[in-house]
């Protein structure tokens, strides 16, 4: 059936669209006569097939309408002729025939216009200008094309209207009853009104096109200006990058600067900026912050414990403490001096297993970061396809496990009898998790959905940790740690990240929970924002900024920690962290101070008072404290760390192959293993394979969801293996918590529930 329909196959598109399909009868020969064929009209070509299935592989014939002649023999026949080729076609009805004729006339007019445009545009212009011209004139050409369609329709309407009026005139001349003549006259008047209306519609469309043409010149000028500005900006940035690289090479090769460079790197290793007053290539690219706006809201004054009462007599004490409480011999603070990572921390634990202390050196591959990132501004980082050249050979699950590098702080916190004293160790632990990031500018691997990572140090360090990737978009990882020393930590972290052109913001979302078994103290806090600067030009460096509020939901103690963002104009030390530990009544007990890349100290408050008012109208609090005690100090990096991605001693062991782990463990990820071995080209190929495999699984899951929806069934989606979603009783948030079963499955070596993700 011509044009499609219930009896003739799928419905055809309207005649004005670019594609028109349907059944027609085609004359073959005198023996077989007319045979039913499937015709497809597209891009000015009319093709036919024996069946619809043949469209995928076999075309029986095609005729170009731009040079074809369209004729109608009778009420149902169509004749197409193009040179020596002629198609005799027949539709089921006159209505179907007319639909096809209209579609053919429109397609012919469009094909002629396309041919003329191609001949007009074929000049000696450069390919780039050709594309620019087509982009500039694209909307205008579309409007012109639609106007030509309407003009063609108008011609067809005029043609058929004239034929209709001739037929009506012939009927008027016939001898018919009087009432029939009146009806014919009324029909003739309606046909005339129809023609007038169609002409008015065409004129209105032409006026619209004229108006669009008058405005298009302004649009073209603005678009061309923006295009030129963008090209100039890209050229300038590329030139700056080249100049910066040449300056770095020249600096390395200058003998007079070698000693100065070495001394700077040794005394300020990891510094994100040169000292104030020195020349720096990062000045114009760095985000600066007003130091006065971020000035601390309190001032600390160290007092002599023997004379604290006399020195405090001049202060209007808002709160008081006693130096007798700061007993260095009995306090847990006495044991806060950090031991090296390789020393044993408990008598009840077995000697540590000998683990690797180095990995293959990082290859020296050069890659233009800007060529990849310039088209990703404003996008989510997890959705940007990145080669492994920007990665480090660890996954995000392993980076999350690195938070436990200073787990002994929590072991010491268990021994604290005072909840505020315990809060100090928890605060130091929350800051220590950022110490590994100061040099780590490379991106960890995005875990695959269902990927896991275990760190079983129960016999050596007293804890065991398990991470699982529980969501892919948005990426979310669940983490659970149990320590036989008396504490449990769990969290679900979702990473939100945005590339802003010259810096990258990484915002961890989700709460971290820590509970001590004996006291029942339950601490909750959230991470601060990490920012990677100098994405385009200069040396990459990382800064942490924001505030952390640690709350003990049992005793209602709080600790407010402030990570001061780096400022070139500030006199404070870089990467500064300050905070105050207070009880449920708001009384301050300890002052926390230090840097997130080196150490944290704690000072016991003797007196507090209100000081002078600043220029911004804020009143500062003055705390008189005892001498500070070091709670945490960063471990030194291993030898040759700069060639091993600046990994700490713990990080070097995280990807070390281990037996009996789950088949979904990050250690078994092939692209990550190839990258660690220095085979980056193979790692890139393997990374693409794994990502495509994950996309195929996601598409299958989406198809299952659609099928379930059509059947009226519920579809649960992906269900984590070792974690389950529950409403947290403390925060009221829906988070993934460990449901058990992993370590039992490891003991039995029964991994039948694990999916094949690698």
Give a structural overview.
The chain has 758 residues and is an alpha+beta fold. Among the domains are: 19-114, Pleckstrin-homology domain (PH domain)/Phosphotyrosine-binding domain (PTB) (PH-domain like), CATH 2.30.29; 393-631 and 653-748, Porin. Helix content is 33%, strand content 25%. It contains 13 helices and 28 strands. A hairpin with a 3-residue loop joins β15 (487-499) and β16. α8 (408-414) packs antiparallel against α9. The protein is elongated, with a radius of gyration of 38 Å.
- The tally of beta strands, per DSSP, is 28
- Give the CA-CA distance, first to last residue: 52 Å
Radius of gyration: 38 Å
Sheet with the most strands, sense and barrel status: 7 strands, antiparallel
CATH class of the domain at 393-631 and 653-748: Mainly Beta
Structural class: alpha+beta
Strand order of the largest sheet: 4-3-2-1-7-6-5
Would you tell me the overall average pLDDT?
78
- DSSP strand content: 15-25%
Q: Helix count, per DSSP?
A: 13
- Please tell me the CATH architecture of the domain at 393-631 and 653-748 by its name: Beta Barrel
Shape: elongated
Helix content: 25-40%
CATH topology of the domain at 393-631 and 653-748: Porin
Give start-end ranges of low-pLDDT stretches: 1-11, 121-130, 256-295, 308-325, 337-347
């Amino acid at each position: 059936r011509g044009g499609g329909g219930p009896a003739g196959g799928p419905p055809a598109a309207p005649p004005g669209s670019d594609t028109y399909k349907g059944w027609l009868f085609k004359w073959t020969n005198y023996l077989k006569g007319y045979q039913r064929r499937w015709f497809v009209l597209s891009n000015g070509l009319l093709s036919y097939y024996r069946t619809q299935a043949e469209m995928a592989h076999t075309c029986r014939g095609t005729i170009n309408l731009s040079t074809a002649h369209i004729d109608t023999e009778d009420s149902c026949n169509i004749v197409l002729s193009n040179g020596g080729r002629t198609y005799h076609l027949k539709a089921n009805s006159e209505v179907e025939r007319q639909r096809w004729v209209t579609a053919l006339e429109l397609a012919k007019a469009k094909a002629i216009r396309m041919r003329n445009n191609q001949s007009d545009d074929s000049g000696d212009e450069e390919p780039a200008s050709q594309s620019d011209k087509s982009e500039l004139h694209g909307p205008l050409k579309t409007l012109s094309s639609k106007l030509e369609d309407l003009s063609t329709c108008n011609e067809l309407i005029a043609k058929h209207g004239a034929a209709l009026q001739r037929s009506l005139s012939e009927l008027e001349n016939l001898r018919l009853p009087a009432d029939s003549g009146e009806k014919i006259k009324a029909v003739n008047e309606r046909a005339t009104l129809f023609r007038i209306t169609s002409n008015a519609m065409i004129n209105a469309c032409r006026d619209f096109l004229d108006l669009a043409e008058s405005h298009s010149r302004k649009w073209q000028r603005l678009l061309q200006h923006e295009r030129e500005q963008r090209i100039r900006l890209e050229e300038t940035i590329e030139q700056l990058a080249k100049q910066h690289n040449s300056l770095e090479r020249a600096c390395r090769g200058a003998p007079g600067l070698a000693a100065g460079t070495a001394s700077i790197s040794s005394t300020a290793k990891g510094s994100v900026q040169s000292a104030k007053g020195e020349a720096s290539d990062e000045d114009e690219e760095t985000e600066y912050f007003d130091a006065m706006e971020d000035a601390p809201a309190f001032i600390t004054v160290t007092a002599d414990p023997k004379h604290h009462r006399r020195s405090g007599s001049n202060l209007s004490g808002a709160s008081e403490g006693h130096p007798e409480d700061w007993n260095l011999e009995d306090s847990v603070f006495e044991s806060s001096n950090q031991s090296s990572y390789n020393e044993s921390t408990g008598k009840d634990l077995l000697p540590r297993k000998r683990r690797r202390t180095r990995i293959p050196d990082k290859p020296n591959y050069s890659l233009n970061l800007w060529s990849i990132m310039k088209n990703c501004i404003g996008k989510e980082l997890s959705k940007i396809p990145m080669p492994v050249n920007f990665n480090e050979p660890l996954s995000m699950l392993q980076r999350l496990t690195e938070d436990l590098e200073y787990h002994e702080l929590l072991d010491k916190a268990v021994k604290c009898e005072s909840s505020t004293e315990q809060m100090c160790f928890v605060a130091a632990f929350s800051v220590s998790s950022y110490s590994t990031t100061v040099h780590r500018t490379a991106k960890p691997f995005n875990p695959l959905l269902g990927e896991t990572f275990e760190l079983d140090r129960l016999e050596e360090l007293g804890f065991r940790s398990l991470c699982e990737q529980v969501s892919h978009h948005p990426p979310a990882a669940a983490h659970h740690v149990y320590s036989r020393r008396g504490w449990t930590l769990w969290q679900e972290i979702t990473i939100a990240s945005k590339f802003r052109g010259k810096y990258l913001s990484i915002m961890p979302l989700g709460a971290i929970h820590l509970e001590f078994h004996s006291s029942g103290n339950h601490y909750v806090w959230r991470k601060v924002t990490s920012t990677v600067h100098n994405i385009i030009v200069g040396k990459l460096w990382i800064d942490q900024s924001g505030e952390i509020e640690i709350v003990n939901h049992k005793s209602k103690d709080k600790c407010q920690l402030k990570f001061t963002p780096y400022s070139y104009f500030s006199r404070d030390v870089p990467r500064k962290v300050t905070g105050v530990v207070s009880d449920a009544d708001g009384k301050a007990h300890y002052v926390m101070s230090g840097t997130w890349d080196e150490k944290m100290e704690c000072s016991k408050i003797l007196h507090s008072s209100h000081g002078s008012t600043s220029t911004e109208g804020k009143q500062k609090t003055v705390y008189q404290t005892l001498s500070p005690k070091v709670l945490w100090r960063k471990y030194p990096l291993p030898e040759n760390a700069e060639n091993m991605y600046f990994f700490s001693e713990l990080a070097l062991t995280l990807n070390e192959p281990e037996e009996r782990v789950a088949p979904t463990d990050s250690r078994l990820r092939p692209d990550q293993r190839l990258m660690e071995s220095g085979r980056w080209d193979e790692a890139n190929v393997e990374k693409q394979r794994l990502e495509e495999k994950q996309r195929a699984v996601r598409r299958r899951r989406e198809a299952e969801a659609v099928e379930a929806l059509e059947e009226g069934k519920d579809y649960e989606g992906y269900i984590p293996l070792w974690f389950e979603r529950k409403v947290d009783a403390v925060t009221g948030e829906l988070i993934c918590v460990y449901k058990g079963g992993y370590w039992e499955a490891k003991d039995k070596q029964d991994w039948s529930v694990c999916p094949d993700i690698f």
